[in-house]
Amino acid sequence: MDVLKISQWMKHHARPLEYARWRYLFEAGGKEVVRDCLIAYQNEDGGFGHGLEPDYTMPHSSAIQTWAACRIIYELNLPKEDPIVEAIVQYLIHSFDEKTGVYQTVVTEMNDYPHARHWHYIAGVQANWGYNPTVELAAYLKLWSVDERSKIIVDQILTGAIEHILTVETMDFHELNNYQQLLVLLKGQLPKEQQLHEKVMELKESAFSKDPSTFGQTYQGLPMDVIESKQDVLYPKYQNLIQAHCDYLNESVKEDGVWDITWEWGRDQSEFLIAKKYWQGILAIKHVQYLQRFK
After folding, report:
1. pLDDT tens column, 269-282
2. Is residue 169 classed as helix, strand or coil in its secondary structure?
3. Residue 56 pLDDT exceeds 80
4. Is it true that the peptide bond before 223 is cis, omega within 30 degrees of 0?
5. Start-to-end C-alpha separation, the chain
6. With contact defined as beta carbons under 8 Å apart, do 290 and 222 qualify?
7. For residues 31 and 50, is the Cβ–Cβ distance under 8 A?
8. Could you tell me if 175 and 188 are in contact, meaning their C-beta atoms sit under 8 angstroms apart?
9. pLDDT tier, 118 (very low <50, low <70, confident <90, very high otherwise)
10. pLDDT reported for residue 1
11. Which residues are paired to 97 by β-bridges?
């Protein structure tokens, strides 16, 4: 891995947002630049759209796009008084579906714009997504709002989400990561927290590939997607596998300095090629963060 080469690629090929994040995280750039880039994706209702998560291009606000923004805002440690954060809180209050107890992950309007097939709406699709990203959005709402309506929403989500995870035997690594973030964001503030922590640890064991020969062959959970630092209690058990993941990342860098992606849209090919470039910028940041955590 050549960090200088990655930096040059980011400068010339990444979206302004990812280049600003790269500068902020690795080159002492200012967070204000990241904030200014991020706000371009925010709508008047406070939610985010416009392909912030590049696999669907719907301009309207949605839960996943807003979740992606929340992660960046948390990375920047913006105060809850920031207008971006205050607007997100209002979006989360008003877009919550009381009947289902979740924020709808996939909505019908996504089908009207170029998108990956895994973002295609069909009846009943929410069952595939569970509490992704609802349970993590609840954590941000609790962190950033003291509104009584927010408290009611958070309590409803946490009741359903904890009941859900305690009854399953396996969980997709994306949804599981939402629960992992919940435990980080609301440490010491959760009902049944010890039981929840133990269940997350149990589910992590089956959420990632343990065969290094499959790394990069298909889209799947990989060790560092689930084991996030050397402080993770699973790290000693899987230390050799983490090293294999690091080796894979170092060996799979393309000549231009970044990594390819392991999925296709299966439709809208011309738009996919644009999104692919955007994803390469996102993954460059993610992979360098991984490698730095475990070096």
Report:
1. 999 999 999 999 99
2. coil
3. yes
4. no
5. 12
6. no
7. no
8. no
9. very high
10. 77
11. 102
Rounded to the nearest 10 degrees, how much is the dihedral formed by the CA atoms of 277, 65, 227, 17? 50
Main-chain dihedrals φ then ψ at residue 62, nearest 5 degrees: -150, 165
Buried b (16+ CB within 10 A) or exposed e, 121-142: beeebbeebbbbbbbbbbbbbb
Spell out the residues 6+ positions from residue 1 whose beta carbon is closer than 8 angstroms to its own.
Answer: 249, 250, 253, 288, 291
Cα→Cα distances 159→138, 188, 196, Å = 11, 16, 12
* Among candidate residues 83, 58, 85, the one with its CA nearest the CA of residue 73: 85
Give the whole-angstrom CA distance, residue 225 versus residue 235.
12
Query: Which residues 6+ apart lie within 8 Å of 67 measured at CB?
Result: 133, 136, 137
Assess contact for 294 and 224: CB atoms under 8 A: yes
Contact assessment for residue 62 and residue 107, using Cβ atoms and an 8 Å cutoff: yes
pTM above 0.85, yes or no: yes
Alpha-helix runs per DSSP H in 108-147: 126-129, 134-144
Picking from 2, 47, 39, the residue whose alpha carbon sits closest to that of residue 17 is: 39
CA dihedral 32, 46, 75, 109 (to 10 degrees): -120
pLDDT in tens, 228-251: 999 999 999 999 999 999 999 999
Q: How far is CA 28 from CA 20, 53, 73, 97, 120, in A?
A: 10, 25, 17, 40, 39
